[in-house]
Amino acid sequence: MIMRNIASAIAIVISLSAPALAQKAEIEANNAKWIEMFNKGDFSGIASLYSADAIALPPGSAMVQGRPAIEVMWKSMAEQVTDPKLTTVDVKPLGSSAAREIGTFILKTKGSTPQEVTGKYVVVWEKVADDWKLATDIWNDGK
Fold first, then answer.
1. Which UniProt keywords apply (predicted)?
2. What's the DSSP call for residue 130?
């Protein structure tokens, strides 16, 4: 009886963690696509990773809403920074069609004396059809 209860508890934990692991893997794959597109200058590709009504909240700036505006925002950012790296720290499922990601980033400023900038971010991801899309994206510098 005790062994059956333990086995049931293990099965429940595994069934609950499997979707979270799948979400994290898909989100990390999207982050890799984001970096690849940024490095290629494909800002419309980056915008396609966002939901149609997504909101970005860049530091020290107004909110940016919708794919066209997000595309312009990232194109403008690319004039100032390069070589972004993202590290997912945690993904928390918010049901089967949403997740919250917390992570860190490193990038380099452009110019005569480039500097490394580190920071953190929070993204709310939304499942749209079969794809995870960034729905809300906020970041700032510092640890």
1. Signal
2. T
What is the reported pLDDT for 14? Answer: 44
Cα distances (Å, whole numbers) of residue 74 to 1, 9, 26, 113: 58, 46, 22, 22
- For residue 86, the tally of other CB atoms under 10 A from its CB is 20
pLDDT digits (tens, 9 = 90+) for 27-82: 999 999 999 999 999 999 999 999 999 999 999 999 999 999 999 999 999 999 99
Please write down the HEC assignment for all residues of 41-83.
CCHHHHHHCEEEEEEEECCCCCCEECHHHHHHHHHHHHCCEEE
Task: Give all domains of the chain, ordered by start, each with its CATH number.
Answer: 16-141 (3.10.450.50)
- Can you tell me whether residue 10 is helix, strand or coil? helix
pTM above 0.70, yes or no: yes
Tell me which amino acid residue 3 is: M
Determine which helix (DSSP H) or strand (DSSP E) holds 126, and give its type and residue range. Answer: strand 116-128
Q: What is the 3-state secondary structure (H, E, C) of 73-123?
A: HHHHHHCCEEEEEEEEEEEEECCCCEEEEEEEEEEEECCCCCCEEEEEEEE
Q: What integer pLDDT is reported at residue 96 of this predicted model? A: 87
